[in-house]
Amino acid sequence: MRLGLVQFAPRIGEVRFNADSMLEAANAAAEYGATLAVFPELSLIGYPPMDLLRDETLRETCRIALDEMVNRVKIPSLIGAPSWEDGKVYNAAYWVSDQGWSIVGRKVLLPNYDVFDESRYFQSGDQCRVLEHNGKKFLLSICEDLWARDADVKYPTDPVQLALDNAGSSVDFILNIAASPYSIQGIPRRTHVLQSTATRCGIPVVYVNQVGARADLIFDGGTSVAHPNKAVQELCPKFEQGFALWDANTHQHLKTFVCSSFGKDLTMSKDLLNPTQGSNVIILGDHFDANEITKALCLGIRDYLAMTGGKKVVIGLSGGVDSAVVLCLAVMALGSENVTALLMPSGYSSERSVADGVALCRLHEVTYQILPIEEGFRAVMGTLHAQWKTPPTGLTEENIQPRMRALFLMAYSNQYGAMWLNSSNKSEAAVGYSTLYGDMGGGLSVIGDLYKTQVYALANSWNSDREWVPSSILEAAPSAELRPGQLDSDSLPPYPMLDAILMDRVEGGLDEEGLMLKGHDPDLVRRVMDMMKRCEFKRHQMPPVLRVSSRSFGRGWRRSLV
Length: 562
Hints:
Layout: E1 2-7, H1 15-31, E2 36-38, H2 58-72, E3 77-85, E4 88-97, E5 100-106, E6 129-133, E7 136-142, H3 159-167, E8 173-178, H4 186-201, E9 205-209, E10 211-214, E11 217-220, E12 224-226, E13 233-234, E14 242-247, E15 252-258, E16 267-268, E17 280-283, E18 286-289, H5 290-308, E19 312-317, H6 321-334, E20 339-343, H7 351-363, E21 367-370, H8 374-388, H9 394-416, E22 418-422, H10 426-431, E23 444-445, H11 452-463, H12 471-475, H13 495-506, H14 512-517, H15 522-534, H16 536-539
Helix pairs in contact: 1-2, 5-6, 5-11, 8-9
């Protein structure tokens, strides 16, 4: 028995495309000796489907697609799809072969935390099932079913262990089909779950995960096998579509193929994007794999542009590290020919910031335009002065500038069909150090789930291989340059201190008392907590944020505005 483990990138709601792609993948795997093709969770309709499941025509669309697959598939295939039974909807697995199709599994544990809300749509299955194929028995589980002992919530039962207890000692391996999104903290947790389950159960755990970005969620794939008391073996490279051949008789990984389309262009696996040479940076207690995060964000940019029908992007380049990192990511993801930068200096912009922005564009062969905002800024100031009989001052004056820049960026976007990529980081979003309808604008927030210290870590890791970000940008004191001599430190604590509190609050889930007990300065904790609360309304109006942490602003962080 040889499994073709397909690391597939389904499109949400595009059932025909997904079915055709899975057919191509299954038949390609068959040509290389696979006797069973395995696809991720809900691969027929894409994950997360959300209210698509309420579409009354979806059931018939899925049935037609399954019927067509029966007529064309060369080997049996396990496919994730919804099932509609007695007025209930299940997150199910289907066995599809030239003999027909049948439902062979229903997800038991339905996650309802962080970005997940499956209990809103699905009914829980009663148990995991043991299947048999070509003389081998395996336990089929769906994503969360494997996490009963390690999830963020307490489950009343462990469906995998219960099924194994009922089956006795005759099960050869556990198969888990998943749609598990990427996060910095999630990868080591997933590895632990796979390895600990294999060791506890005494049999291999084979894991097949979705790949591709779906708006804010990025799926890394990470298709793997875990053997008892051994390190987890990754079978497919993360963030790439492809399939691996795994022999269930010898428990050996045979081959891996990566491909943009399963019908053509099959190539042996290789690392296609490695600007950091696998560099690892440990930052504030988190394992920050810069190469992995780079790949995740590049995939997020590419797939978001593909989903929205665009090819080109525009970036407001300030001369600071945030916009520099976004420009580099856009170049890696799309190529320099598809990236344009607008440098929009005001009377408060330093010569250094403009010169560094130009140097960065020339370094990466990115087209740029210098569009000073001073004339428009003074015109707005004059109009308001005449109307109000007093000149705009303070925050009013400062915020007119980023809103002028937003006007230029959106004008360019409309004129040339280029999506504006937002450059705000998570630290700024957390405490409101950004301008609503100004630098908070754009079609996609690329680094909105990276804290400021992590943005620096990413840039420094790239520069360890070659110069991606000019050193003068990294060495400059952070500043919004909205008034003379302005520095971020005028309004915010030093970023290492701020980010440590934010990480413990957002990802760590600590409340005010917990933050103080952990040793953070009480006055600073109260100040940060107050800023976070007052700026919740801003975060609700951010563009979609590419999620790379265990708790991103957006669907992973849900708070009332009052």
